[in-house]
Amino acid sequence: MIFRHLPFLERLEKVKEAGVTAFEFWSWQNKDIDAIAKKKRELGLSVSSFGLNLRDFSLTRPDVGDELVSSIQETVQVAKKLDCHNLIGPVGLGKSVSRLSRRQQIKNAVENLKSCAALLEESGMTVLIEPVNLIDHKGCYLSRSSEAAYLIHAVGSQSVKMLFDFYHQQITEGNLINNAKRYFDLIGFFHIGDVPGRHEPGTGEINYRNIFRCIDDLGYKDYVSLEFMPTIDHVEAVRRTLRLASF
Q1: Annotated catalytic residue: which of 130, 173, 200, 236?
Q2: What is the mean pLDDT for each group of 10 consecutive residues in the chain (247 residues)?
Q3: N or C: which end of the chain has fewer CB within 10 A?
Q4: Domain holding 219: CATH number?
Q5: Is 172 inside a domain boundary?
Q6: Is 102 left (phi over 0), alpha (psi -120 to 50) or beta?
């Protein structure tokens, strides 16, 4: 969502200029993975995460286990080229299936994720399950962190974790710091963006200095992804966010 006005490889140069050491992107099928791998090595950057890119795909359907395994097998090879271990699953588990009860849909999601757990564990990858707000993502199944926690407990694999997006969860349920603490052992990754507007921290109602202090105190060691649309110069928006996280 940052530097999108530039060709992809030029965005990586801006990442370096902004003073961060990693980048995230969404889909990989439409990108030159070899060129990205070469460029990131030249710049000394890491890939924090990227998406499985399962369009119109819902883990709440009963008939997608084989397709999910196949997609993960393919994506794992890309992840190894990029030296990345975080794979973002379908947003909100994908679209809710209206003909099925919520109970049946969550059961399907558990079984589908169980079907690929051994593959993920063997490859050292983590699939990140992200609850999202249902205003921006109408029709998706998963919106609440408590239901994501239930799902991850039921799957029972260290290779299936929650992606806790502070922007989405502020809109859906608030109580951000308490929920980050409550589910911390199940959380594998964080996204940030302010509310309203999904802009850089400091433009809205979320106290990101306290958020950063909280996850640091909890012992979080992985990356935090800046998934927001800057209202100012993009490099400066990133640098301001870095300053908020420095204490």
Answers
A1: 130
A2: 97 97 95 98 98 83 92 96 97 94 97 96 97 97 98 98 98 98 98 98 98 97 97 98 91
A3: C
A4: 3.20.20.150
A5: yes
A6: alpha
